[in-house]
Structures are given as structure tokens and as C-alpha cells.
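Task: sequence design from structure.
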């Protein structure tokens, strides 16, 4: 029992506490996109835990697997799940790197973050865009000429 209490005191930093430190750094570094990415991941994993913050020593392969299953059930894409987990992993590793946390076992070494093939590009080609612009311009020009003729 005494060892468990000591472990929680030694490794008592939570994901939200450490996340706030890193998010503040990102905002001061003019990286609001990364800060927002981290904040979204923290919200998502905290929501899975019933709204309670998680200490970094509470991260397990089981927790990460449950997170993945929960989000698959919500129809979250593989890329979405991967994004959340990569952000959480980055925060977890930064806490270790800065000696804020000492893991007994690293769950990210035993858990594969889901990936998918490269997302198919959905943008139209530059040539198609030019054709649409030219067509629209000709159509507007013709419409304008007809209006002038009726005056």
C-alpha cells in the first residue's frame, strides 16, 4: 500500500497538467495549431475516462486499446484516432524527456497506433479549375452582353 501511494506521488502529474504546460509553450511559440491539436486529444482521452483526468502512470495498453475501440464505435476515422493518439504520445514522451514522469512500462512501445493508406486527394486539378473559370467567365460575359442588348 505504501509503495502505491509513493508511486502516485512520484508519478502524480496528470495529462492535463502537463498538457497545459506544453500548450502554453506552443501558444507562446506562435504554434496555435499544435496547441489546439494537443488540447483536442486531451479532451478526447479525458472524456473516455468519464471526465476524470488521467495521471501519466495510469496509461496502459488496455486504456489505449479501449480508446481506439470506443472511437471506432463512434465511426471516427483511422486518421482521426491516429491523430489523437499521436498527440497524447507526444505529450507523454515530452513529460519523460523533461523528467516530469518516470514510466515503469511504456504502453506506446507495446501499442500500434492505427494508420491507413494515404488519404486520397479530393481537390480538382489545376487544369480543371482553369476550365471551370473560363467557362464561368464566358457564360457571365454572354449573360452580360444579353443584358446590354436588351437595354
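Answer:
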Amino acid at each position: 500500500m505504501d509503495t502505491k501511494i509513493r508511486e502516485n506521488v512520484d508519478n502524480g502529474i496528470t495529462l492535463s497538467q502537463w498538457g497545459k504546460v506544453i500548450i502554453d509553450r506552443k501558444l507562446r511559440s506562435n504554434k496555435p495549431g499544435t496547441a489546439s491539436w494537443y488540447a483536442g486529444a486531451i479532451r478526447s482521452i479525458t472524456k473516455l475516462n468519464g471526465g476524470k483526468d488521467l495521471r501519466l502512470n495510469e496509461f496502459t495498453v488496455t486504456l489505449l486499446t479501449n480508446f481506439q475501440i470506443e472511437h471506432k464505435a463512434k465511426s471516427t476515422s483511422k486518421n482521426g484516432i491516429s491523430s489523437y493518439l499521436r498527440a497524447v504520445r507526444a505529450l507523454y514522451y515530452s513529460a519523460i524527456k523533461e523528467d516530469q514522469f518516470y514510466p515503469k512500462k511504456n504502453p506506446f512501445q507495446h501499442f500500434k497506433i492505427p494508420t491507413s493508406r494515404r488519404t486520397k486527394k479530393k481537390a480538382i486539378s489545376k487544369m480543371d479549375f482553369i476550365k471551370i473559370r473560363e467557362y464561368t467567365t464566358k457564360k457571365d460575359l454572354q449573360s452580360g452582353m444579353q443584358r446590354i442588348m436588351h437595354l
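The chain has a mean pLDDT of 83.
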